[in-house]
Amino acid sequence: MDPALLPQLGVAGALVIVVGYLLTANHRLMTANRSDRADYLAALAARETAHATEITALRNRVAGLEDRIGELEDELDRERDRRRQAEDIAAAVRRHT
Question: Please, which pLDDT band fits residue 17 given cuts at 50, 70 and 90?
Answer without folding.
Answer: confident
